Amino acid sequence: MDYLLQAGLSFLAAVAFGILFNAPRRMLIHCGLVGTVGWLVFSITQTLADDQVVATFLGAFTIALMSHIFARRRKMPMILFSVSGIIVLVPGATAYNAMRNVVEQDYLMAIELATRALLISGAIAMGLVFAEIIMQIYSRLYRRVVKKEKTDALVDIEETRQL
């Protein structure tokens, strides 16, 4: 499947989940963009690195960063974008196949698939957490710089008044 078709389908999936999540209409395109970019990062990384867990981590990290940016710019909750975007990375088929193999008593395959689903789910969680940490560090540094600039500006004003 080519990247253009994958991008379109991931956009539709993210928008559809945004609708289910009761996202405001004007935010649905943003939800779709988050899902699309996250899926493309996942897909390209998986092609280059041939590691689904690393690709999922990078996709989730990208989704979380974009969600933070859209949340701040659009003054909406971050979870609105992240949940809609992350749905394209959830290993639902892998977990389903693991359970199907348990029912069919193919336990070795079930364990392999369940382990893969668990690793992918963990990669999603780690990607979200890592992006959250990066954004908090950025916010603190940004606030420090802005506060210092305001303090410097006030000092300059006071010095000007004294002259």
Automatic annotation (TrEMBL):
Keyword presence, ATP-binding: no
Keyword field contains Cell inner membrane: yes
Gene Ontology CC: plasma membrane
Topology in the lipid bilayer: Multi-pass membrane protein
Top-rank taxon: Bacteria
Keywords in alphabetical order: Cell inner membrane, Cell membrane, Membrane, Transmembrane, Transmembrane helix
Subcellular localization(s) per the UniProt record: Cell membrane
GO biological process, one term: succinate transport
Residue span, Threonine/Serine exporter ThrE domain: 9-134
Residue ranges crossing the lipid bilayer per the database entry: 6-23, 28-48, 54-71, 78-98, 118-138
InterPro entries: ThrE_2, ThrE_Dicarb/AminoAcid_Exp
Pfam families in UniProt: ThrE_2
Family (UniProt): Belongs to the ThrE exporter (TC 2.A.79) family.
UniProt-recorded name of the protein: Threonine/Serine exporter ThrE domain-containing protein
